[in-house]
Structures are given as C-alpha cells and as structure tokens.
Design a protein that fits this description.
By secondary structure, the protein is an alpha+beta fold. It contains 17 helices and 25 strands.
Length: 641
C-alpha cells in the first residue's frame, strides 16, 4: 500500500465529475474542442489561400512565417504585400469551457473565435476582423481522439453526423459552405467561406443570430466574474486565462490537469507535471473553482518518487526526474487553499505525501553542517530520455532543484559521493523552515499533534542554521561554501526568503530591505524583482534566471515583506507585480513565464513562454493584499515583534 493511495483515490473521484462536457481538453491544439467522456472532437482550422497559410494544430504565441514558396528564390529584394507572422492570442474564458475566446492572425488575416457550451450542446462563432477579397476558409474537422470508439460521416454539405457508443451528435455549419478538397484533412470536415461571420453548432441547428445571442450570454457570465474583482479586474482576467487555457484532459490516467503550458506537454509525450508550478497554480485555481484546484493539487502526488518526494517533473514519455525535487512550497500552498476554500477530505489526502516529502529533504539533502544543500542523485535511466543520462548526480541537475541557471551556482562544486552541491543554500533552507511550519499547521488541523510538534522543532532547528548564514557586514543572508567555508557574494531574491520563513530579527529585516531590496543598484527599479541584482555581471544577459523577473520569486518575497510589516517595500512589490502582468496582458495578450527587468517585456522572445500558469501569481499578490485571499500562515503573517 502506498502513501499516495488516498490522494489518488480522492483525485480520481473529483476527475470523474470534472472530466465531462465540452472543453479544450486536447493539449495539442487550442482550436480543438473535445466532448467527454466519449472523446468526440471538433478541430477548427483556417486556410488563407492568398497567404499560403493553413492552420489546424494551434498553440499560443507568435512565429515567423518566412517568405512564400514562390518568392524565396526570386524577388527577394521586394517586400511582400503580406505580414510575416502567424499568431494565436488567448482571450478570456471559463475554466469549464462554457465560454472561450481567442484571436488568430494569419499573416494579417485576423479572426476572433468564440465558443460556448452547455451540456451536450456546443457552438462556435468565427468573425473576420477585416474585409479582404481573397478566399479564406474555416474548416471543421470531426473525429474521435485518444482512440475512443466512434466514427463520423459527412451526410450533407452542411452536416456531419458523429456516432459514439452511447450517443449520436450532429455537427451543423451555418454560413456559405464550399468544396476545398486539397485542404489537409484525414477525417470528415466541413468548409465555410470566411467572407463574414460563420458559426458551427453541435446538437440542434441554430440561426447565426441565435448563436451570437448565446455566445454573448456566455461571455457576459465570464466578464461578470472578472468585474467582481473591482480594480483587480484585468489582473484576474490575465490570471484566469493563463490557468484555464492550460487545463487539459490526460487520457492515460483519465484526469484533468492544469499544466504549465500546453505546447510543453506536446514536447513531453502528452503531459508534464512540474513540482512547485503545480502547487502555485492549484492554489490560484481554487480561489474560483475549488474542486478543480484540489484535483490538480493532488496530481502532484500521483507519481511520487519511491513514496518519498515530489519530482521536479514527470511526463507522458515515462520520464521522471528521479534525481531531484523542486522548492518545497507544497504545504504552504495546500494550507493556503484550505484557509480560503476548505476541503477536509483533500487536506487529509495530501497530509501523508507532504509529510513524506518534508522528511525526504531532511534525509536526502542534509549536509555535514546540519543545513540543507541542493542535490541530484544518481539513478539508472528508465525511459531513455537524454536528460536521464546528463543531469543526474551533477551540479546542473542540482541547480534544477531551485533556480536553474542562476549565477549563484556558477562554478559551484558538486560532491558526487554525497550528491550535494557544496553550498549551504539560503533559499532552500528558508523554504524548508516555512514548509515545516505550514505542515505543522496542517497536522494540527487534522489532529496529528505529535507530528505537528516534531515539525515545529525541526523548523526551529533549521531556522537556527539559517541564521548562521546572515552576513552582518553586508546586511544580507548569503550562501556559504561547504568545502571552504567562504561566503558566496552572488545572491538573488532568495536572500529575502528568511523573511517568509520568519527567521530574521526585525532589525535584520529592516537592514535587508533597506540595503538591498530597495537599492536601485541591486533589486529596486521600474521593473522588479530581478532574479539577479542589477550590479551582477550576468544581469545584462537577461537570460532566464540571470536577471529576469520571475512571478514565484516576487510572490515569496511579498509574503515575507507582509509578515514583517515592511509596508513601503511591500506596497512597491504589490504595485509593480500587478503592473507587469496587466501591461503584458492589455498590450500583447500574454501572461509570460518571466519578464525583462530592463523594459518589463515578456512572452515575445526566447526563453519566455507567452502563457505560463504561474504568471498569475503577480495578480494573486494583490488578491492577498486586498483581503480577497488569506495568506496561508495566518497567525505568522503579522509584523514581527
């Protein structure tokens, strides 16, 4: 019997309720709507024949289209009369798929796609956003996904009938249908000329006016939810959109997942469950959809490694990062979910895996000084993934347990015998102290008083070790080498995590914030908080953890500032975090993985995904700030005395 059995059973019960009806369940295209449980799928596609563009497998983002085939070798000195990009932009939507919206830009041919669903019925409205004389086509491909039984047949120019084992569904085209036999398709499809708005319905055939009315009503419901957040409307809109668009159905385990990014799943065999991402996103989802949030949270434990720890990543190819975990924020997020949207059954189901994970850190990452270090253990490859051969038992693998390519880890020695990076890590130790405290709170709620007492003692033990990493002369917590005892002068926002852990004295907190966080030569500025200080030699690279702004780092620093009553710094982080997200969403329809600390941009270049779930943390900060969300360690989140 596994300690995850209860968590999986509770999750599966939730999935049986959640995994029903129409939604963008298939991770491979945001234009594919699937009905569960039968797997009937409608894939919308676009053909702009004048621009030589065919789009059917669509993901969010922008890509360069390049020159058209007829102009690649000749006329290269001429500017083509078409745009050069293909772009798919997310719009607002509901978690349950009752309403979705997005925009498609095919070299300048722009369309709005809206859908609405209610029970077995589904409809789409596609609206051209400019008038042009050239032939544009909407295709509606009908079939069944995930090898579910069923078949589809085109029985008229306006209708396809789909037959599943337990139901028959009619797919109707509303608009001018045309014959385009050369379009790429392997299943029956309808083709509609996009000279004006067109619609598609599953169920009864409706008029275009009725489709508009029903979709308008579905849109209004979503807009009302966003409006209920008042001044945080745009932030909530960006947060929910980034989360809801990344919700998929994973057929192997018959479950609903909120993954970090749909296209990342495609690169990993259908799904990828990342560790700390899952806990952050589940907490945010639970604010408006508790059942979905708890179901997604419990999925962090389905592939618990050796009944001991949550892996950095597990994926559809069978690969599991068995050598390492990721920052221990699970107990904090689960406690936050429970304090705001209580689910006693799910809390009890999470207790065993969370406790095992907490114990694993103490057992597997404790160094000779009695504090924690990042690590990466050796293991025999199980899936044949190249990462299984090059990452385990290396410094690079250990860095992936925290902040990837942070300059803090440049030239950091790694002990292949202990499997530990030879650094006492401020951030890891602080997060572990907070994990012990949050897990103790959960234990108290569940009646596990003895375990709660042990966890509080462990928090004190590691808190004392963490205090030894205070550098009095520089007024900051610094990493320290295990092999030489030398201080590391490279730091990051993790140096502020001891505030979140409640370890710093009020005087230390004041000095830390004044000398460093509010110092424009380090972390302060128009766009903050950079993952490496502005005076670090790598800051100008703006490459991943080398100087860019990361939502989880802002979030954890904010919680520490709130705990210590650092009002000026706290308000600055609140305002600047929200501004980053809302600016990106309003101007570019992105909710980025990370942002430039130089100009605040994000989501439009390399190493910054345009729609990653944890971007919503930048708005979630404001929801805690204005009291809509209760901070997880409620009694500790007060000004320290």
């Amino acid at each position: 019997m596994s300690i995850t059995d209860n968590a999986i059973a509770v999750a599966d019960a939730k999935h049986r309720v959640l995994a029903r009806g129409w939604n963008t369940w298939d991770t491979r295209s945001v234009l594919r709507h699937v009905h569960l449980p039968d797997g009937l799928a409608l894939s919308l596609g676009f053909a702009a024949l004048d621009k030589l563009v065919w789009l059917e497998q669509a993901q969010f983002g922008r890509q360069t289209a390049g020159r058209t085939p007829g102009t690649k070798l000749t006329s290269t000195d001429k500017t083509l009369p078409i745009a050069n990009t293909i772009e798919v932009l997310p719009g607002i939507r509901a978690y349950d798929g009752s309403y979705t919206s997005l925009e498609v830009n095919l070299r300048g041919a722009r369309y709005r796609v809206e859908t609405a669903a209610n029970g077995e019925d589904w409809m789409a409205l596609v609206t051209p956003l400019q008038d042009e004389p050239w032939t544009r086509v909407l295709t509606v491909h009908v079939g069944f996904v995930w090898n579910r039984p069923g078949h589809a047949m085109r029985d008229s120019e306006r209708r396809i009938t789909a037959q599943a084992p337990e139901r028959t569904a009619a797919v109707h085209a509303i608009g001018e249908t045309i014959e385009e036999p050369n379009l790429p398709a392997m299943t029956p499809y309808l083709a509609l000329r996009l000279s004006g708005p067109v619609a598609v319905c599953v169920g009864q055939s409706l008029s275009l006016a009725e489709v508009r009315r029903r979709i308008g009503a579905a849109r209004a419901t979503v807009e009302q939810l966003h409006a209920s957040y008042g001044a945080l409307k745009d932030g909530h809109e960006a947060m929910q959109s980034s989360l809801a668009w990344n919700i998929i159905y994973e057929p192997k385990h018959r479950r609903v997942l909120c993954t970090v990014a749909r296209d990342w799943n495609c690169l990993r065999g259908g799904y990828a469950v990342f560790c700390w991402d899952t806990f952050f996103t589940s907490w945010m989802i639970a604010q408006d959809n508790p059942a979905l949030g708890y179901a997604c949270m419990l999925e962090a434990f389905r592939e618990l490694i050796d009944d001991a720890f949550v892996s950095n990543v597990v994926q559809g190819t069978g690969r599991q990062a068995r050598d390492r975990s990721q920052p221990p924020v699970g107990a904090m997020c689960v406690l936050g979910m429970y304090r705001n949207r209580p689910d006693a059954e799910a809390l009890a189901a999470a207790w065993g895996p969370l406790l095992a994970w907490n114990r694993w850190w103490h057992r597997a990452r404790r160094n000779p000084r009695g504090s924690l270090s990042l690590g990466s253990n050796p293991f025999k490859p199980r899936a044949g993934d190249p990462a299984e051969f090059v990452q385990p038992n290396t410094a690079a693998g250990a860095a992936l347990e925290a902040l990837d390519n942070s300059p803090m880890y440049d030239q950091a020695p790694f002990d292949e015998t202990t499997h530990l990076m030879q650094i006492e890590d401020v951030g890891l130790n602080a997060l572990y102290v907070a994990d012990c405290e949050a897990l103790a709170e959960i234990g108290t709620i569940l009646g596990h008083g003895d375990e709660a007492a042990k966890l509080r003692e462990r928090a004190k033990e590691y808190g004392a070790r963490l205090q030894e990493l205070w550098h009095a002369e520089q007024g900051i917590y610094l990493n320290r080498r295990l092999d030489t005892g030398a201080w590391s002068t490279r730091h990051s926002p993790t140096s502020f995590y001891p505030l979140y852990a409640g370890v710093a004295t009020p005087a230390q907190a004041e000095e830390l914030v004044r000398k460093h966080l509010l110092n424009p030569e380090e972390y302060a500025g128009e766009w903050m908080i950079p993952a490496a200080p502005r005076n670090d030699p790598t800051f100008s690279e703006q490459l991943y953890m080398r100087g860019r702004i990361w939502p989880p780092l802002n979030f954890l620093v904010y919680l520490g500032l709130k705990r210590y009553g650092q009002d000026e710094a706290r308000k600055r982080v609140v305002e600047k975090s929200l501004a980053l997200l809302t600016r990106a969403w309003r101007e570019h329809r992105v909710a980025p993985e990370n942002f430039s600390a130089i100009d605040g941009s994000g989501g439009l270049g390399a190493h910054t995904h345009p729609l990653l779930t944890w971007s919503g943390l930048l708005a979630f900060i404001s929801m805690i700030e204005d009291g809509r969300v209760t901070a997880p360690l409620g009694r500790l989140m007060q000004k320290a005395e």
